[in-house]
Amino acid sequence: MSRAELPRGWQWKTIGEVCRVIPGFAFKSKDWADSGIPVIKIKNIKSDCTIDVSNTDCVPPEVVSEKMGKFRLRKGDILIAMTGATAGKVGWLSSDREFLLNQRVAKLDPVDIEKRFFWGVISGRRYQDLFFHLADGAAQPNMSGKQIENVEIPVPPHQAQLHLASIVSTYDDLIENNTRRIEILEEMARRLYEEWFVHFRFPGHEEVSFKESELGEIPEKWEVRQLEEVVALNPRTKVPKEGEKWFVPMGALSESSMVVGSLEKKSGNSGAKFQNGDTLVARITPCLENGKTGFVDFLPEEQPTACGSTEFIVLRSISLCPEMVYLLARSDRFRDVAIKSMSGATGRQRVRVESLVELPVVQPDHATLEAFQRFVVPCFKQVRTLALKNANLRAQRDLLLPKLVSGEIDVSDITMPEDKEVEAA
Asked: What is the DSSP letter of 125?
């Protein structure tokens, strides 16, 4: 977009003219603790412009001085990753908890521009790409606060900023609401799994006889089997070499949700291979420790198999059910065994799949398994529906905002989206 294309009354301004760029604090290695004040790091800024606060490192309150006030974060803060593969990714902090900001992440604090308008501009695909290409150094992309400050954005008169901000807010609020619903549905499924298959408090358990096992007391008709007997690990899956097909990169897996996003189209058939109903688990550090796990439910009938990162472990149900396998992969017991089995050079350690094959797993009776599916399958389907709605909302937003910002579309011509109008297909 050239300067000549700006509508009348609009101006080009640098980010440094309209907001403060505040890089985070360089905490020392001795400062980190298991509990305390959570700190937002690069790893917490996600490719979907969100900030994942479910997996944060902490510093004890006593290491935080009054002089560190500018590094405290509040709900609605805008952050940008400055280093690494996620350099240029931005995130909107939606949590109202107390956080601190770590080095190599900067806060963009608007002072002479409407925050939601500014967010709408920099969170668009064009500026995400621009920020990433600012990063210098092939081995480790990195950009400075000064480079961010020098980036120019188009700024309309204040009233137009308010109109555009209201449109951005409408889209973002719908996306955030759907995201919260996804979190609730997934939490329901995980708690149900724990109640039924960890604590064995399933409906009617009071009437059932129990027996001793290596997992403690389990129902009389249930069995304890090795993982490889109930779940296929990296099963053989045929993916044709010809033509383009869906490919799942490591970045597409979430650390806290079953939803798989940011799919790519690639030719060939290299990497992990999978089909709908499979679970994908990251096997490399730090992705495994951070919880990267996904549920495959997005492949169309015309392409029933696909490929992904070579650093995935593929899990497929043999005698359980797909949903139970995913929830098992999210369980503390599975993750603890996987993490402890990791070997290799520091920073590139991987799970030894053979260390998982003998993991004891409970095999419920058929009736209980069917009852469990009746509860969790609707949860999984609803998560998928909401994820599709969010994908469409983001696509609409990304198509609309550049045209609004350039003046190609008049703000007054825009009808606000409603949740019920966003189709999930």
From this structure: H
